[in-house]
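Hi V.,

Quick status before I head out on leave. The structure for the redesign project is tokenized and pasted below; the design run finished overnight.
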């Protein structure tokens, strides 16, 4: 049976695809397809595609695929809010799982280190909340900082927060993470469990 995690992952991919399509159309980018960048997250080389439309078609097929063989690894219940007491524990578990995904180990490791240091921020645009997390074992000694956000759809949120290069391509670091336009920090957007989140953490000196 298709898990809710798979469904949210596909929805997150389609949301990013929609933002990329609009950006391509607005900026008339010619130096590289945004969709092609996203394909690299799946380990797919789209350099042989005849056009961007072909790349988008391929992305849509990926998003439509249903993996019936993926076993559930849920051990921590998905919290209702980023401000929930057990949210940091949930995020830590999901990031540990992310370390096993192709091409994402470096990002996941950086986010786990930021969590331990108390510098990982997680935003939920739909909830309108952002929280600077504290590692599960340090909750009693460190304050969890919560910020109210304007509730937005994810497409609008990403357009407001992601840095773009000339031509409209979203800027990427060497590890594949995005760059938050407002803070300059590294950023990740995607599904963790049954929901999508936007995570930011301090950038290294070398991008």
């Amino acid at each position: 049976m298709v898990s809710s995690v798979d469904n949210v992952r596909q929805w997150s991919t389609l949301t990013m695809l929609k933002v990329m399509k609009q950006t391509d159309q607005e900026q008339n980018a010619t130096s590289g397809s945004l969709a092609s960048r996203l394909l690299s997250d799946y380990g797919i080389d789209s350099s042989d595609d005849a056009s961007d439309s072909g790349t988008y078609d391929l992305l849509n097929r990926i998003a439509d695929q249903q993996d019936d063989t993926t076993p559930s690894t849920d051990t921590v219940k998905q919290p209702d809010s980023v401000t929930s007491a057990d949210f940091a524990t949930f995020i830590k578990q999901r990031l540990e799982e992310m370390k096993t995904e192709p091409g994402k180990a470096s990002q996941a490791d950086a986010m786990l280190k930021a969590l331990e240091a108390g510098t990982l921020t997680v935003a939920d645009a739909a909830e309108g909340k952002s929280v600077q997390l504290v590692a599960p074992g340090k909750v009693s000694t460190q304050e969890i900082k919560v910020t109210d956000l304007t509730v937005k759809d994810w497409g609008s949120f990403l357009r407001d927060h992601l840095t773009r290069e000339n031509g409209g391509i979203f800027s990427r670091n060497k590890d594949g993470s995005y760059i938050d336009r407002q803070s300059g920090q590294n950023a990740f957007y995607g599904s963790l469990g049954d929901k999508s989140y936007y995570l930011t953490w301090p950038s290294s000196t070398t991008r």
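Above is the designed sequence. The chain has two domains: 4-64, 87-201.

G. will cover questions while I'm gone.

Best,
W.
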